[in-house]
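Subject: Sanity check before I submit

Could someone independently write out the C-alpha cells for this chain? I want to compare against mine line by line before I put it in a report. The sequence has 173 residues.
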Amino acid sequence: EKSSSIIIDYCYNMGFVTMKGSGGYAAGIVGGLSFDPSSGTRKVSNVYNVGMVTNSGNPQRAYALCSSDKTSGNLSIVNGAYLAGSASNASTPCNNVTATNVKEVAGAEELLAVVSAYAPSEEGNVYVRDTALMNDGYPILARQALSHENVTTYDCGRRFCNDCHAILSSPEE
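---
Independent answer below. Compare away.
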C-alpha cells in the first residue's frame, strides 16, 4: 500500500533485473517505488547489488541500487555498494533517494572490504567471505556460511539447507 513502511536490511542481489517498456524504473534492490511521502518509514540499509539492471524502454531509468517515484521523496539508503557497470544508467546508482555511504566497487574483494565494515544488524547479520563459492565469490551473510549439515536433497538434485534456508546450487556444496 502507498502508506506502508518498508525496511530492507542486509539484502543483496545477484540476478538480472530487466524492465521492458518506458514508463517505469528498474533497480537492483528497490525499483519504481511509489508511496505517500507523508507516512511510513522507507529505509534500505547494508545492501549490495552485482546483478545487471536494464530498462529496454529507457536506459536512464535503470539504477544499480534504488529508485522511487519522484513524488515519494522519503526513501533513504544507508550503506549500499554496487558493482561498476551493473546498471544501464551506470552514472547514477540511486534515483529520488536520500543516499548515504553508497559506493561503487570493482570486484568481489573490494565489495567484501566495503560490506564487511557495516555494523551488525539487531539480528546479528553481517557479511563474510564466500569461501565455499556458493555466491560466485561475492560476500554472503554469516548465517549462509554454516556447515550445511541439515540438508534436504530433492529429486532434481537441488539441495536446501534447513538451518540457514539457503538453496545450495550444486550437490558438492
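---
OP: Matches mine. For the report I'm noting this point. Residues 22 and 57 are 4 Å apart (CA to CA).
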